[in-house]
Amino acid sequence: MEPRHHYPVLNNSRILAPLDDQPVWSVTCFFIARGSRGQGLTVALLKAVVEFTAAQGGRIVEGYPTEPRDGAWAAPAFVYTGLASAFLEAGFKESGRRSPTRPIMRYTIR
Question: Is the pTM of this model over 0.85?
Answer without folding.
Answer: yes
